[in-house]
Design brief:
The protein has 647 residues and is α/β, with parallel strands linked by helices. The chain folds into three domains: 278 residues, Glutamine Phosphoribosylpyrophosphate, subunit 1, domain 1; 173 residues, Glucose-6-phosphate isomerase like protein, domain 1 (Rossmann fold, 3-Layer(aba) Sandwich); 155 residues, Rossmann fold (3-Layer(aba) Sandwich), CATH 3.40.50. 36% of the residues lie in helices and 21% in strands. It is built from 21 helices and 26 strands. The strands form five sheets. An eight-stranded antiparallel sheet has the order 3-2-6-1-12-11-13-16, covered by helices on one side. Strands 7-8-9-10-14-15 form a six-stranded antiparallel sheet. A five-stranded parallel sheet has the order 18-17-19-20-21, sandwiched between helices. Strand 9 and strand 10 form a beta hairpin. Helix 6 packs across helix 7 and helix 18 packs parallel to helix 21. The N and C termini lie close together (5 Å). It binds 6-O-phosphono-alpha-D-glucopyranose.
Length: 647
């Protein structure tokens, strides 16, 4: 939750302060909970349990399921910690041990909801975990998002005699439904919706009726339509092995899911809506580890293919396919503004260098989270490109809304098909990189750089330029495979590298965003302090850090000029007895400057526009093997989440 947004009214400010003070509650800045609901003939406990495992990548600290038991009563089982027993040390809490006995599920139910919670209001604890059951015991809800006016609603409900058993914002939903229930479950939910402010999606089950209701406003919700069953969840992963038929709910829509695969979709006002059934664009294999120790390693290794997927069908049809992706691009573009967060922002930064240098159009890249509070000046012929792997990142979505409202030309470069940013942008390119499950983004970054190059080719009316990029793109999958020749070396040096307490990642020009992204990876998964810096700026401060605990990681590729300048910076570090690791396409020359305790990783030579793709891969591997050596939770690093769906 971001301060400036919350402070919009005094009441919200009060909520925020209360959140922070209340018994040391943890008020964190992200909320990526996952929700899932099942109605069908199978044991929904098992379906929901397996579905929750697939939602783990979103990040969570507690988990729970709610279901109707044989007598039609609502039961909730919750746990802090992990979903599966095998993911925790013996004796540590997990959901599995509460719902399984001798390897078999203890419960059987055909109407089940489940939730992975990432704490926002109230510390991670069993009582704050979802589902939340109304005081009467009649309704249970799971919720993703934030109910911004929960404190006012909570006060009103407390005045009416409702007792709260958690510190969450979500619990108000269960009590409100109960309060409004007057014999009509759907009506009670609809009345509740009129009371809620904020971004949310939730699922609710009741003792009184045999259906699940799901509602969406701001947070994602999609519906898998099986033959005799319906699975509603935050994304398609929980049901992709059961059905490929999906409908995506829009904001202000609710679904009522019945037995036998039947459902109704309505607006919050109660008007029936006809939804198009779409196909899930990937297979179950795409979301398994395929023999790799971690999803992240698998995803790093997928890059020869994912990079190819991003360009292969497009490069021979630039003037049709790619131009169609960006219809009616203004003739006189004022600026190209790339918007994103985290890794996607750094891809946008690469875009900025490409757009200015080769398309000669002013360009910038912006932290979406800063941009949205700056009241940015936007012109009609500004082209604003939102970059996002998940397509759900709240800040990026908000930034996109702002530039759209201000009349700019908007487009998205997004991996997740049908995601909110993709739909809001309405045009742009999908990456076709398949689901990225490791929390630290890898393959999305390299595919984003391909997409950025394709977009820029539209701005550059020079066939030779385009052809040279296309030719090099086609060579790229093999060059990436060559990078993997370093993998054994990187694995071998990881224990030595892991001894450093600090890292400076240094690059110049188009390698500067690579330095930022390399450092981000090391922070995210190895939990070691790492800073990305422009190597030219290094002597204006960071050089004071050079000591035995600091490793300087240099990215030295590119044109002669940049190469030489970055090399000079390396020599400045070396002359102060600093230790370095160098990523370079010029190993022979580099060896002359390095000592026996420095490290060198050879990458193939490529053109500057694509060099970040080649250079980031050894840095991804370096973080991976350092983190693995340190025994980190690589796919689900502490405190991080895959998609950050609140500002
Ligand atoms: C989170 C993830 C990062 C990611 C960022 C932007 O912080 O942990 O890995 O780069 O969100 O995500 P997006 O899905 O918009 O690319």
């Amino acid at each position: 939750m971001d301060g400036a947004r919350v402070y919009k009214n005094k009441n919200a400010l009060f909520i925020y302060i209360r959140c922070c003070l209340d018994a040391c509650l943890i008020c964190l800045v992200v909320n990526m909970c996952g929700i899932i609901g099942y109605i069908g003939n199978d044991n929904g406990i098992e379906v929901v349990f397996n579905g929750l495992i697939r939602l783990e990548y979103r990040g969570y600290d507690s988990v729970g399921i709610g279901f109707k038991d044989k007598k039609g009563k609502i039961k909730a089982v919750k746990s802090v910690g992990r979903i599966q027993r095998s993911d925790v040390a013996p004796g540590m809490p997990n959901l599995e041990e509460k719902i399984k006995e001798n390897g078999r599920f203890k419960f059987d139910s055909q109407i089940v909801i489940g939730h992975t919670r990432w704490a926002t209001h109230g510390a991670p604890s069993e009582r704050n975990a979802h589902p939340h059951v109304s005081m009467s015991g009649r309704f249970a809800i799971v919720h993703n998002g934030i109910i911004e006016n929960y404190y006012t609603l909570k006060k009103e409900l407390v005045d009416k005699g409702y007792k709260f058993s958690s510190e969450t914002d979500s619990e108000v939903i269960a009590h409100l439904i109960d309060y409004f229930y007057n014999g009509d479950f759907v009506e009670a939910v609809r009345k509740t919706l009129t009371k809620l402010d904020g971004a949310y999606s939730f699922l609710v089950i009741s003792e009184v009726d045999d259906f699940i209701i799901g509602a969406k406003k701001g947070s994602p919700l999609c519906v898998g339509i099986g033959n005799d069953e319906i699975i509603i969840s935050s994304d398609e992963m929980p049901f992709v092995d059961r059905t490929k038929k999906v409908i995506y709910l829009n904001d202000n829509e609710l679904i009522i899911a019945y037995f036998n695969g039947n459902y109704d979709v309505k607006s919050f006002e109660g008007i029936d809506i006809e939804k198009e059934i779409k196909g899930v664009p990937y297979d179950i294999e795409a979301i398994t580890k395929a023999g790799y120790k971690h999803f992240m390693l698998k995803e790093i290794h997928e890059q020869p293919t994912t990079v190819k997927n991003a360009f292969i069908s497009r490069v021979d049809h630039l003037d049709t396919m790619v131009r169609d992706n960006f219809p009616n691009l203004p003739r006189n573009i004022n600026r190209v503004i790339y918007l994103g967060c985290g890794t996607s922002l750094y891809a946008g930064m690469v875009g900025m260098y490409i757009t200015e240098r080769y398309a000669h159009v002013p360009s910038r890249s912006e932290y979406a989270s800063e941009f949205i509070y700056r009241d940015p000046v936007i012109f009609r012929n500004d082209v604003c490109i939102a970059l996002s792997q998940s397509g759900e990142t709240a800040d990026t979505k908000e930034a996109l809304k702002i530039v759209k409202d201000k009349g700019a030309y908007v487009a998205g470069i997004v991996n997740t098909v049908g995601s909110q940013i993709a739909r809001l942008a309405g045009k742009g390119m999908y990456l076709h990189a398949g689901p990225e499950i490791g929390v630290a983004s890898t393959k999305a970054f390299t595919s984003q750089i391909i997409a950025i190059n394709l977009f820029n080719m539209l701005l550059i009316d020079d066939d030779d330029y385009r052809q040279s990029i296309i030719n090099e793109m086609k060579r790229l999958p093999n060059k990436i495979k060559d990078v993997f020749n370093n993998e054994d070396y990187i694995r071998d040096i990881a224990p030595m590298i892991a001894r450093y307490k600090n890292f400076l990642y240094l690059g110049r020009d188009i390698n500067y965003p690579v330095a930022l992204e390399g450092a981000l990876k090391m922070k995210e998964i190895a939990y070691i302090h790492a800073e990305g810096y422009s190597s030219g700026e290094m002597k204006h401060g960071p050089i004071a850090l050079v000591d035995d605990n600091l490793l300087s990681v240099f990215i030295i590729t590119g044109g002669r000029d940049i190469y030489q300048k970055t090399l000079n910076n390396l020599l400045e570090i070396k002359s102060r007895n600093g230790k370095v690791l160098v990523i370079t396409d010029n190993v022979d020359e580099m060896r002359k400057y390095l000592g026996n305790d420095d490290y060198i990783i050879k990458v193939p030579n490529t053109i500057p526009q694509l060099t970040p793709i080649i250079n980031i891969i050894p840095l991804q591997l370096l973080s991976y093997y350092v983190a693995d050596h340190l025994g980190r939770e690589i796919d689900k690093p502490r405190n991080l989440a895959k998609s950050v769906t609140v500002e």
